[in-house]
Amino acid sequence: MKTSLVVAIVVVAIVVVGAAYAYTSIIAPAQKFKVAAVYVTPIEETWNQVLHNALIKAKNELGIDYAYSEKVSESDVERVIREYINGGYRLIMPHSWGFWETTDRLAPQFPNVYFAQGSGLCKNFGKNLALYDYYIQEAAFEAGAIAAKITKTNKLGIVTAFPGVGDVNNLLNGFIAGAKYVNPNVNVTISYINSWYDPAKAKTAASALIASGVDVIYAERYGVFEACKDPSGKVLAYAFGNIVDQNSLAPDVVVGSVTWDLYPMVKTFIQGAQSGNFPAGVYYTTMKTGGSKFVWNSAFAQNLTAVKAFADNLESLIINGTIKWTVDGNLVPLSTPNFAEPKP
Fold it and tell me: 46 or 229: whose pLDDT is higher?
């Protein structure tokens, strides 16, 4: 009798413990997929904002765990990346040209970690490394065409970072080609500030362009808008925003923005890494897929109805491949990047 009672108690205990374990297993939350981004400049810089915003959206819609580090130097990026890897992050996004050599070297060393490098000359793609960039020359082309339509002085300007950087050249080439498409004789002046992020230098450069007669500026760098109005509020020049929608920053100055929507790409990378079908290699953003967009300031769209209609038609020509340009000696659709030195 006592033996039977002991056996019964043991069986009940096993059942209860097993049920508790099963219940715990059922309700235990799955570990979130961990994604980290590394930025060389402050998060406020537009190149950073566009990825940051896309990853925040992914955090909310895809349930990922997102972390980032800003103001990381090229000499320190390897340490930061390794810390994220040791912390269980499965997708690392080093978001700067200056990081590409480190990423290209580390990716083969960590085949179970996925890397998405923001610009550069990566070669060691394997199955876990993707290279992306702001291939939004199509939207820049549209901005250049609009600029050529609205200038009164026939003088356009560009304020940008460094000379000789391929992905930046691509944007400049797009803007210049769009302007020349409308008016082959339009004058375009490029001003380099030799910095990725220096709003004060960008403002000074824009002021100098305006003093020379430029009345429309492509603000490829942050800080241009402040120079486009005098202290009394009078508009001295119009401008175009870059990478993110900057129309609200100076609504009486910014005609529209050349934007880069990274969420479709980020979603592809995350889901590819989770499923084991990561899109290694070069990832191209196009107007047709929605990554490259020109976003009008609604006030200017309403006031420039004829120009807006022209631009809408131009977008159709770009998307269907009618608009072409010469890249490396070949006539190709505008969706193909052009990294050559700009020729205003």
Answer: 229
The number of beta carbons lying within 10 Å of the beta carbon of residue 274 is 15
Are 263 and 57 contacting, i.e. CB atoms less than 8 angstroms apart?
A: yes
- DSSP 8-state class, residue 40: S
Query: Looking at the domain that runs over 34-132, which CATH code has it been given?
Result: 3.40.50.2300
C-beta of residue 128 within 8 angstroms of C-beta of residue 272: no
Q: What integer is the mean pLDDT of 147-162?
A: 98
Q: What is the pLDDT of residue 29?
A: 58
**How many angstroms from the chain centroid is the CA of residue 158?**
19
Q: Are strands 292-296 and 324-327 parallel, antiparallel or unpaired?
A: unpaired
Start-end of CATH 3.40.50.2300 domains in the chain = 34-132, 137-261+289-333
Residues 65 and 87: beta-carbon distance below 8 Å: no
Look at residue 22 and tell me whether its pLDDT is greater than 70.
Answer: no
H or E segment to which residue 325 belongs: strand 324-327
Question: Quick check: 27 pLDDT over 60?
Answer: no
Q: Between helices 46-62 and 263-275, what is the axis angle to 10°?
A: 50
Is the pLDDT score of 174 beyond 60? yes
Instruction: List residues bridging with 293 in a β-sheet.
Output: 259
What one-letter code names the amino acid at 330? N
Which superfamily is assigned to 137-261+289-333 in CATH? Response regulator (3.40.50.2300)
Please answer whether residues 259 and 295 qualify as being in contact, where contact means their C-beta atoms are separated by less than 8 angstroms.
Answer: yes
Give the number of other CB atoms < 10 A from CB of residue 76. 14
Whole-model pTM over 0.90: no
Reference 40, options 104, 103, 126, 112; nearest CA is 103
254 forms beta bridges with 239
CA angle (273, 277, 283) in 5-degree steps: 80
Does an H or E element contain 21, and which?
helix 2-27
Q: What is the pLDDT of residue 289?
A: 86
292: Cα separation from own chain's centroid: 10
